């Protein structure tokens, strides 16, 4: 049943390619004006889901409802959306102006109206001086802006972005994701972006749908996905996480490496084997007089600008290194060196716990 407050509703969507199930009973609701990201590893189904929304793939079963209209059976040409592809798909033989005006001319717009609309869009994306240039004369970031302007030229109510920043270098990508965010604020278009980049999704989306094996693993605001990941896959995919094996002693205590530590909020029964998830930035070094204190040996230190990434060998993770991120304050911190034995603590309020094999 459609959510009355949603602009786009997807119900029990399945898509198979032969025996391969690319989408497995996907149901989501997207509100008007929302910016959402479909996030997941390669092959998780995120692009297939986007293509089904656009009508570029036909779902095997299920329903897609846009603005209270069932569009599942409509051809692409009759759906209300604009799309930016990963490769931008600009016409190489057409200028920026001609690329953007292409759809408007196909709709029979008057020449004066086309000129006014395209000039306005070129101004919006900061390319007024590039009207006569061809795609080969533009940088990757400029091509992306032309593709974005073309996608919204016909004033669609839904904007689809298929990995629009992945072909750009790191600095340009950071700059353009901020531009995308500001662009969305100005226009208020309902927007869906596909990405495999966790940082990109966390920084730009109102809501994230984390996908794996054709299923929605978790959805919610970025801060909730990061801090309250529902399962080890999400915790590991969104950012970096240390997984530590333990056993439940009671509702407030988990045993790790023969030491009881405080934990708040789990619902597992006594004796349950669990994975305790600790983010690197939530582990403190050299804390004293703390019940949750452990020791480890520094085996590597990486300087990453605003913080140090410290790798520890410790008995609580016998087969992996524990990762700790320590903020850089002032001059380079030389107090941590390879070979040092350091104490570290894990705050109970910053830990998540999952049942093993779940």
Task: Describe what this molecule looks like in 3D.
With about 350 residues, the protein is of the alpha+beta class. It has helices spanning about 45-55, 95-105, 110-125, 140-150, 170-185, 200-205, 220-225, 230-235; strands at about 10-15, 20-30, 35-40, 60-65, 70, 80-85, 160, 190-195, 205-210, 215-220, 240-250, 255, 260, 275-280, 285, 295-305, 305-315, 320-325, 340-345, 350-355. The strands form four sheets. Strands 6-7-8-3-9-10 form a six-stranded mixed beta sheet, with helices on both faces. The chain has a five-stranded antiparallel beta sheet with strand order 13-12-11-14-20. Helix 2 packs parallel to helix 4. The mean pLDDT is about 90.
From the structure above, extract its key features.
five-stranded antiparallel sheet, Rossmann fold, alpha+beta, OB fold (Dihydrolipoamide Acetyltransferase, E2P), 8 helices, 2 domains
What is the structure about, briefly put?
The chain has helices at residues 46-54, 96-106, 111-124, 140-152, 170-187, 198-204, 222-227, 232-237, and strands spanning 8-17, 20-30, 35-39, 61-66, 69-70, 82-84, 158-162, 190-195, 207-212, 215-220, 242-250, 253-256, 259-262, 273-278, 283-285, 293-303, 307-313, 322-327, 341-346, 351-355.
């Amino acid at each position: 049943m459609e959510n009355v407050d949603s602009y786009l509703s997807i119900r029990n969507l399945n898509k198979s390619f032969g025996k391969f199930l690319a989408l497995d009973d996907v149901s989501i609701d997207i509100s008007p004006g929302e910016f959402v990201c479909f996030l997941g590893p390669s092959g998780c189904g995120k692009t297939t889901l986007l293509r089904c929304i656009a009508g570029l793939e036909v779902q095997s079963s299920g329903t897609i409802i846009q603005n209270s209209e069932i569009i599942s059976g409509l051809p692409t040409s009759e759906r209300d959306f604009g799309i930016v592809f990963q490769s931008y798909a600009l016409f190489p033989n057409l200028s920026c102006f001609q690329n953007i005006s292409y759809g408007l001319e196909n709709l029979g717009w008057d020449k004066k109206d086309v000129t006014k609309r395209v000039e306005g869009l070129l101004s919006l994306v900061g390319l007024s001086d590039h009207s006569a240039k061809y795609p080969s004369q533009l940088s990757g970031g400029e091509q992306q802006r032309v593709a974005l302007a073309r996608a919204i030229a016909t004033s669609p109510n839904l904007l689809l972005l298929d990995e629009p920043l992945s072909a750009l270098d790191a600095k340009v990508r950071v700059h353009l994701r901020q531009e995308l965010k500001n662009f969305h604020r100005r226009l208020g278009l309902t927007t869906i972006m596909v990405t495999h980049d966790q940082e990109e999704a966390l920084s730009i989306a109102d809501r994230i749908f984390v996908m794996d094996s054709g299923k929605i693993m978790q959805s919610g605001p970025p801060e909730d996905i990061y801090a309250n990941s529902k399962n080890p896959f999400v915790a590991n995919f969104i950012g970096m996480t240390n997984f530590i094996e333990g056993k439940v002693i009671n509702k407030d205590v988990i045993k790790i490496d023969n030491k009881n530590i405080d934990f708040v909020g789990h619902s597992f029964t006594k004796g349950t084997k669990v994975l305790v998830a600790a983010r690197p930035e939530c582990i403190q070094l050299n804390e004293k007089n703390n019940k949750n204190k452990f020791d480890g040996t520094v085996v590597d230190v990486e300087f990453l600008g605003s913080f140090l990434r410290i790798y520890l060998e410790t008995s609580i993770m016998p087969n992996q290194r524990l990762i700790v991120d320590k903020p850089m304050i002032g001059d380079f911190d030389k107090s941590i060196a390879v070979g040092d034995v350091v104490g570290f603590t894990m705050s109970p309020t910053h830990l998540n716990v999952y049942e093993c094999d779940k």
